[in-house]
Amino acid sequence: MKIVVAGAKASGKSTVSKLLAERLGLRCVEADEKISELFREWTGFECSCAEICRKVGEAEFRRLEAEAVEKLGEEDWCVVSLGGGSLMNPKSRRVLRGGALWLYLDGSADVLWGRVMGGGKIPAYLDGCEDPAKCFAERVEKIRDVLLCRADCVVEVDERTPEEVADAAVVEIEAELGSRSGAANTFGEVIKLTTFGESHGPMIGAVLDGVRPGVEISEEDIQKELDRRRPGRTKMATQRKEDDRVQIVSGVFEGRTTGCAIGMLIKNKDQKSGHYDDLKDVFRPGHADFTFWRKYGLRDHRGGGRSSGRETACRVAGGAVAKKLLAERGVTIRTCTLAVGKVKAERFSWEDAEANLLRCPDAKAAEQMEKEILDARSAGDSVGGVVQVQVDGLPAGLGDPVFAKLDARIAQAMFSLGSVKGLEFGSGFGSAAMLGSENNDAMSGMSFESNNAGGIFGGISNGEPVVARMAVKPTPSVSLEQRTCDTAGRDRTIEIKGRHDPCIVPRVLVVMESMMALVLLDAWEIQERIRPGWSE
Ligand SMILES: Cc1cc2nc3c(=O)[nH]c(=O)nc-3n(C[C@H](O)[C@H](O)[C@H](O)COP(=O)(O)O)c2cc1C
Ligand SMILES: Nc1ncnc2c1ncn2[C@@H]1O[C@H](COP(=O)(O)OP(=O)(O)O)[C@@H](O)[C@H]1O
Ligand SMILES: O=C(O)C1=C[C@@H](OP(=O)(O)O)[C@@H](O)[C@H](O)C1
Ligand SMILES: [Mg+2]
């Protein structure tokens, strides 16, 4: 993502870009400097843009400027301060469109002319002009015509100090980024996963973008992970029978990623939409039926549409790729079940966890947990539980202050899963009852003697295992009679038909591993851009 700052001369592009870059924690790149650089490479002379324009004429200067823009197009994670005329060129506009947000600083010709005169530097293109103030005003108008309707954010600058302009720009940028996420089907900054498809549509799928070229990946690698989530395998899961075969349709050639978007499709084969006929106008308590209807005014009621747990297959497909890449970098992600309903694991052994379907680290508790799930199922009810995700081998340094803290990103990833209702890192809620001296992780030999923090300080991984625990609520769709309402506002009772997970825990484990992998790979790629080779 780059913020492109545009506007007429003296609107404050250079001044505000610097302030904005500081506020957003990004680099600031000046187009003028790039142009001077190109000119130096070309002629060996060190000149400012105005000098270049005077030396070579405006047409040649614009050619150089377009070449500089071409280079700026390759920049990422920065604020780009443009020259006044840069975006008047359609080709340059195209170059700077991708992955960018445009901020237009809007000033009136009078005020800007005042600033130009105050600085004593009349733009070169006004040389020889009979009425420079008028020519300048025409240029300002032209720029406004082009940018006012094209910019993503507009900030008026006449009656604001540069600091006030930067502050107003931050508000505008945040609002714009917020609205862009309206569709909210894409997750990640560099490693981006988009999922699509409804539970009862013809297929579901994922597009994973941002993965480097040359990574070995096969359908089998992905299938292995998908099979862990597949419905219908045991009595502890929904009886909807899907084979969840993945087909890679793009981005992989001769077994390796090409660097282009990786497209993955999974066909829906066992939809029984008739089960949902009764739910067309009635809301399932605990599910997303009511809120989707209130928000959109309509909904795909079959299987819950987009809000169905089925969508999470797509996350596993994307996560499988991320997981493989991380494994090559020595990072492993494991999950285990700490509780189901009222049954808790009393001991912790990864060996036990590997040996039962629930991945419970206590073999004895695993049996009781399974019984808890089957009992709830027989009673037409459901149970929830607690899942732990542990990441080993993660180097220190991943995660970005302030809004992209690693723990914040992980929390977002986990809470984006239906049924997740709580999350803690390390000593988590328990830390609230500890003394600082107990909770702090003492250091020796440049590492930590304990891990109450759960592997993250200040939003940045500290080299210890990242440990997160999630509370998963009992599945909302239960067949016992429940009180609810319909779309006409009448009170009703329902008995839900259809095939549902009596407990979400066993099937959400691999989904949580996948979401963790996506967050970590994304953070890793961002860190590589900030400080390549940082982990060595
Ligand atoms: C892997 C997975 C499987 C799920 N299976 C079911 C299910 O069979 N029946 C159901 O009603 N909800 C199921 N859910 C939960 C719903 O998707 C979720 O409760 C619903 O979208 C409402 O979101 P909320 O619980 O976060 O408020 C499942 C969720 C996941 C992640
Ligand atoms: N909001 C503002 N209020 C007053 N002066 C400003 C403001 N923004 C910029 N300036 C002044 O105007 C001149 C041009 O600013 P600059 O950032 O170089 O503009 P640009 O890069 O858009 O041509 C500088 O002297 C700067 O200090
Ligand atoms: O494939 C899946 O993971 C699921 C499919 C759903 O079927 P319906 O949408 O037909 O209810 C339901 O069993 C559960 O949400 C999980
Ligand atoms: Mg400037």
TrEMBL record:
Subunit composition and interactions: Monomer. Homotetramer.
Where located? Answer: Cytoplasm
Matching entries from PANTHER family are given as: CHORISMATE SYNTHASE (PTHR21085)
User: Is NAD among this UniProt entry's keywords?
Assistant: no
Q: Where does ATP bind?
A: 10-15, 160
Note on cofactor: Binds 1 Mg(2+) ion per subunit. Reduced FMN (FMNH(2)).
The UniProt record gives the binding positions of NADP(+) as 229, 235
Pathway note: Metabolic intermediate biosynthesis; chorismate biosynthesis; chorismate from D-erythrose 4-phosphate and phosphoenolpyruvate: step 5/7; Metabolic intermediate biosynthesis; chorismate biosynthesis; chorismate from D-erythrose 4-phosphate and phosphoenolpyruvate: step 7/7
- Organism lineage string: Bacteria, Pseudomonadati, Planctomycetota, Phycisphaerae, Sedimentisphaerales
| Annotated residues for binding of Mg(2+) | 14
Q: Which InterPro entries match?
A: Chorismate_synth (IPR000453), Chorismate_synth_AroC_sf (IPR035904), Chorismate_synthase_CS (IPR020541), P-loop_NTPase (IPR027417), Shikimate/glucono_kinase (IPR031322), Shikimate_kinase/TSH1 (IPR000623), Shikimate_kinase_CS (IPR023000)
Cofactors required: Mg(2+); FMNH2
Organism encoding this protein: Anaerohalosphaera lusitana
Positions that bind substrate: 32, 62, 84, 144
Its EC number(s)? 4.2.3.5, 2.7.1.71
Supply the name of the protein: Multifunctional fusion protein
What is the superkingdom listed in this entry's lineage? Bacteria
Q: What's this protein's function?
A: This reaction introduces a second double bond into the aromatic ring system.
Listed under GO cellular component are:
cytosol
List the catalysed reactions.
5-O-(1-carboxyvinyl)-3-phosphoshikimate = chorismate + phosphate; shikimate + ATP = 3-phosphoshikimate + ADP + H(+)
GO BP terms: namely:
amino acid biosynthetic process; aromatic amino acid family biosynthetic process; chorismate biosynthetic process
Q: Where does FMN bind?
A: 306-308, 458, 473-477, 499
Alphabetically, the GO molecular function entries are: ATP binding; chorismate synthase activity; FMN binding; magnesium ion binding; shikimate kinase activity
